[in-house]
Amino acid sequence: AMKNAVPQAASLLLEKLMLLVHIRPLPAGSGGKTPPPAPGYYDTSCFKRGDLLEVPRTLFIHFGIYLGENRVAHLMPDILPSITGDRRQIQQVVTNKRLILGVIARTASVRVDTVEDFAYGGSILVNHMDRLFEDQVLASEEAARRAEKLVGATAYSLLWNNCEHFVTYCRYGAPVSFQTDKFCETVKMIIRDQRSVLASMLLGLASIVCLGVAPSTTLPTIFIPFFLWMAG
Questions:
Q1: Is 88 part of a structural domain of the chain?
Q2: What is the Cα–Cα distance from 71 to 65, expressed in whole angstroms?
Q3: Sign for the pseudo-dihedral over CA of 109, 115, 116, 122
Q4: b/e map 186-203, b = 16+ CB within 10 Å
Q5: Per-residue pLDDT at 30 exceeds 80
Q6: Domain check: are 120 and 204 in the same one?
Q7: pLDDT tens, position by position, 147-185
């Protein structure tokens, strides 16, 4: 059972590494570009200012705070704010290349987009996380104002500062990421089986992509002790 579980966990870890950074699945023959739905694709009349919008994908969930008038504040990895101040360029829809480079450089931005650009054709859940926080839900206007104050360039970390941390801070007062918790549990499962060469390779990849550890840094001296400590 353990032999079967480890490859499955390793595969899940790799998928999480690539998809938790919000890379959009592009259809075959698209040439790497998929236009978002036309304006009016979503009925925003049921959204209220300060609502937490949740877009489930295949292996991850993207989050944002609705600001009213078809505007959503959300955090996305993006390399562009760190290399240019041209707001017109930055405000263009973030490409997968910008996303990946942003993750590697650990830079991001809290940006305001239309609901169509934010959801990118996915279904939208409204305040679905409220059931997990019950008495911690802040007033809607407070949540929206928190989101607006954070608009602009920020640091990015898959583990410590992603889109879920952003919305839970805005709406519930504390940055939390349940996706990160699941990711860490997967890492713990893998590292407990020290026989897995694949696990070591994936953990090395995670150290570079998620934690910013340079490729020249040796895995045994830097990365494994950290996750052994995390595994408790």
A1: yes
A2: 9
A3: positive
A4: bbebbbeeeebeebbebb
A5: no
A6: no
A7: 999 999 999 988 889 999 999 999 999 999 987 767 667
Q: Which residues contact 89 (CB under 8 A, 6 or more apart)?
A: 80
197 lies in the same domain as 172: no
Q: Is 163 a known active-site residue?
A: yes
Kindly list the strands in the beta sheet with 61-68, ordered across the sheet, starting from the edge strand earlier in the chain: 125-126, 52-56, 61-68, 71-77, 107-114, 152-155
Can you tell me the distance from the alpha carbon of 133 to that of 146, in angstroms, rounded to the nearest whole number? 18
Are 171 and 205 contained in the same domain?
Answer: no
Helix (H) or strand (E) holding 105: helix 96-105
Q: Which residues pair with 72 in a beta bridge?
A: 66, 113
Among 46, 163, 170, 210, the active-site one is: 163
Among residues 221, 229, 186, 223, the alpha carbon closest in space to that of 60 is found at: 186
